[in-house]
User: Fold this.
Amino acid sequence: MANAVTTAVRRREFLPFAPPALGEEEIAEVVDTLRSPWISTGPKTRRFEEEFARFVAAPGALALNSCTAALHTALACLDLRPGDEVITTPLTFAATVNVIEHVGATPVLADIEPDTLNLDPARVAAAITPRTRVLLPVHYAGHPADLDAFQDLARTHGLRIVEDAAHALPASYRGRPIGFGPHPVAFSFYATKNLTTAEGGMLAAEPAFLDRARVLSLHGMSRDAWRRYAKGGSWRYDILAPGFKYNMTDVQASLGLWQLRRQDAFRRRRAEIAAAYTRAFAEDDALQPPVERGDVQHAWHLYALRLHLDRLRIDRDRFIDELTERNIGTSVHFIPIHLHPYYREKYGYEPAAYPVAYDNFQRLVSLPLHPRLSDEDVADVIAAVLDIAREYRR
Ligand SMILES: Cc1ncc(COP(=O)(O)O)c(C=O)c1O
Assistant:
């Protein structure tokens, strides 16, 4: 197969899917923290929380060690009981749904919109029962979910909303930044994300909600270690709830402080690359570029290309093999939740239960989309995709 690929469309070096974009300032800030007397949750974490909240216009923010931790803590603060239902999307990472199980509630999946691949408000409306407590939309790939529609449903049925914004920094919906609230919004700073602290996350919410979340996220202690060990601090604390160990460290926050300052420039570059991909792929009817609706600003965390498999002689997996052969790193977002053994067996899901998620999963491929891509890298990705589409045309 290797010989079939012309050198013109095979890069010499493998192009990684999503390497971090860290600068000298991040490195210097980490070193500064390592030389300081305090390396766990402390002054830099607090500063990162304040600057992040300002950046997304949130009423407040709590830095944690992952988005999973932020989602889990948010749901734990809502005091759900066994049998309570949380409606979310099947096209998401396992963490979104695992945390619903962690708090003893029942995940209920509703199918997605065919254009944005986000949770479909009409499907959600049909899935609401007297046991529904929470709606948990995910801003898939960084394209904001239809928040006004979910807010209308929440008002009508007395529900809470928790947003999974792992992909949605920075993004906006009808002029409002994702994170604006007033409900809890969880962000991810995992290594591949738009802002990385290696591992990390942020929970944006109202200050009163965050007071409870802060206590729950650190063992349920009434006072964190930084304040206990600081001069004048007391060694005493009370355990107010059986909490978690989810705090962010100042080493992570050191990365976050500088990554935050780069966000607007990073987003501009990702949007430029996404536009270049879309322009190039629009010509080929085997390729379906992602959409950006008129009333949102997409974070462009992922460029989720869809293949029209009826126009191709190969399936998505083989398309990915061909991209790998041409030295292009890819990924797939996501294997739908209802296909995973744990969920399939526990809830008896059939693949066709969520046809839009199932159909799209089979034709999705995420292309490299990050600010470290040069114009030549982008041209290589385009050339490789078009080459495969041409070679395997039906
Ligand atoms: C949609 C979604 N939600 C949640 C998460 C969990 O993020 P973290 O790894 O920061 O816990 C991810 C991570 O990839 C994700 O893609």
About this structure: The longest helix spans residues 263-281. The chain is about 40% helix and 10% strand. The first strand starts at residue 61 and ends at 64. The chain has a mean pLDDT of 96.
